[in-house]
């Protein structure tokens, strides 16, 4: 077991999907065996978009239960709900005083989200990456398993840490991103030029971790591809985005290489390939739904897990927060 600390989080906005799983969650599970892992349901981040309280409450519990259902082991790993540890919001304020307006203005996610939610461009949406930096830096994380879309936020977290360390003395560990090679950016099944996203309104665009086997296979059968028929990966051909995405999904789920996948389906058509990918994903997700249902039937157990997770998280983050207060000169 390495001494290294891993931190990552997921927003409880809708059910996690295949992109979340292949971009991040699969690595969360794998890394638990080798590192000190701390994972969080980032509910405070989700408030940047208006939430319906009753639905939001249910989604926070759902996301927490899904993380256990995919294999996060709460005995080995700290798994908690972000708002159960007030240190995140506290450190976020302090770090916002070490973050430049210009830096936050350059965040592509802020630009995208403010376009999408033009009726509610709130200050939280703008300072969101500072809260994310606080999440990571509170636990002195060495590695952060994420998909490619979070890389810019991670780089900002490092910049903030360097600025604080230089202004005072070494306080924060500089975190490194841990991004998978072939599944860093899983695309929508219906518009393969767009990232698979929890907020996509088209139900065929993404596969949820709780979808039933036949639903998963149906979604893959409907996946948008191009008019040719050869199953070959070609990164430089934009019209091949659909088939490239399916190859990335297949290789990430099965552990096979691109050339193994091409060989396996050589001479076969897109129809056979789509079915093959759908079945591979359905196999990988086969146990999640049952395990999720078992967990959610026992509310008390889930609440006990959340309480225990929050206690473990607090114990760890208080050390960093105290250090920061002292270095800044707070009495
Ligand atoms: P979120 O909730 O959007 O996504 C959770 C994780 O899934 C990855 N991901 C993807 N990977 C590949 N293909 C996709 N289509 C895809 N969509 C999402 C994301 O990169 C992420 O790793 N801001 C974060 C949550 C967060 C966080 C943190 C992450 C809050 N604090 C601290 C790391 C460290 C977010 O919105 O992720």
| Mean pLDDT across all amino acids | 96
The count of strands amounts to 5
Radius of gyration: 21 Å
Strand residue content: 5-15%
N- to C-terminal separation?
Answer: 38 Å
Low-confidence stretches: none
Largest sheet: 3 strands, parallel
**Helix segment tally:** 14
Shape descriptor reads globular
Bound molecules: tryptophanyl-5'AMP
Topology as a string of helices (H) and strands (E):
EHEHHEHHHHEHEHHHHHH
What does this structure look like?
It is a single chain. 43% of the residues are buried. The protein has helices spanning 18-31, 43-46, 53-69, 87-96, 101-105, 108-116, 123-138, 151-167, 213-221, 241-254, 258-264, 270-285, 288-296, 299-328, and strands spanning 5-10, 36-41, 78-81, 143-145, 176-178. Helix 8 links the parallel strand 4 and strand 5 (176-178). It has a 3-stranded parallel beta sheet. With 331 residues, the chain is mostly helical. The mean pLDDT is 96. The protein has 14 helices and 5 strands. Tryptophanyl-5'AMP (TYM) binds next to strand 1, helix 1 and helix 7. Tryptophanyl-5'AMP (TYM) is lined by residues 7-11, 19-20, 23-24, 42, 45, 132, 135-136, 144, 146-147, 149-150, 184-186, 195-196.
